[in-house]
Amino acid sequence: MNEAKTNKFSDQLHQAAAPLWQKSLHHPFITELASGQLPLTTFRYYLTQDTKYLEAFNQLHEKTAALLPSSQGELLLRLAREAGEDVQHNPILLQVDLTAGQIRQAPIAPNNYAYITHMEHQLSLSPAAAVAGLLPCYWLYDELADYWKGQTSPIPVYQAFFNSYQTAGFNNSTRLLIGLVDDLAAENSDLVKEQMLTAFMRSSRYELGFWQMAYTHQTWDDLEN
Ligand SMILES: Cc1ncc(CN)c(N)n1
To answer: Which residues form a coiled coil (predicted)?
Structure first.
């Protein structure tokens, strides 16, 4: 076994989150996307919430980059640009006739709100925790993309969604962010590393919650029941 690999902080993170990520991989939202059985209204709900999420996520990159030394901040902004998730020009939104106005008018759902708020909170703890909180968004979808390589959905727009994450740009951005997290862990104290682990695990839970939120079309009224 490669000792350098097993000593990496990101390996610890991956190991801790693996059971949660397995649940994401096998969530009914994902399996029904692949089988083609997912209702289009559910996919539209997901895309509506995801567009709001990605807008906030882009801003979080900028806020986090501003707290990092300039070389690390520039790297963070570059990998976000090169990941290929362009919320302004997402062809999948066009394919399901989802307009910017419809997305704006839809209320943000509780899990989405909590996930974004959680990532924003990390900014007040440490830049390293903020970066670690961003990582599951890349890394989980990169693993999903790998899993999706063997799948073909009978619904073309669901297949287009799978394909959109199977790009060298997304994979490369994920690798760069993992490297940045490892660098930050190496530079920081045990206390900060603990913050990083907590931020990463909570983001992983909110990722799993995101599928469930979309699958059930979660609303704020649901919190009363
Ligand atoms: C909620 C969520 N998590 C992750 C990704 C992929 N960056 C995404 N688009 N949306």
So the answer is: none
List, chain by chain if needed, residues with CB within 6 Å of any ligand 1 atom.
Answer: 50, 53-54, 85, 137-138, 141, 207, 210
User: Taking each helix axis from N to C terminus, what angle separates 110-122 and 190-215, rounded to the nearest 10 degrees?
Assistant: 170
pTM above 0.90, yes or no: yes
- Report the atom number in ligand 1 closest to the C-alpha of 165: 6
Instruction: Tell me, in angstroms, the distance from the centre of ligand 1 to residue 137's CA.
Output: 5
> What letter does residue 106 receive in the DSSP assignment?
S
Kind plus residue range of the DSSP H or E element containing 49: helix 40-67
Q: Dump pLDDT digits (tens) for 12-63.
A: 999 999 999 999 999 999 999 999 999 999 999 999 999 999 999 999 999 9
State the amino acid at position 105 in one-letter form. Q
For a substitution probing ligand 1, which of 20, 33, 48, 54 has the most ligand atoms within 8 Å of its CB? 54
CA of 2 to the centre of ligand 1 (A): 31
Domains of the chain in sequence order: 24-220 (1.20.910.10)
Is residue 174 within 8 A of residue 108, CB to CB? The reply is: no
CA angle 96, 163, 55 (to 5 degrees): 60
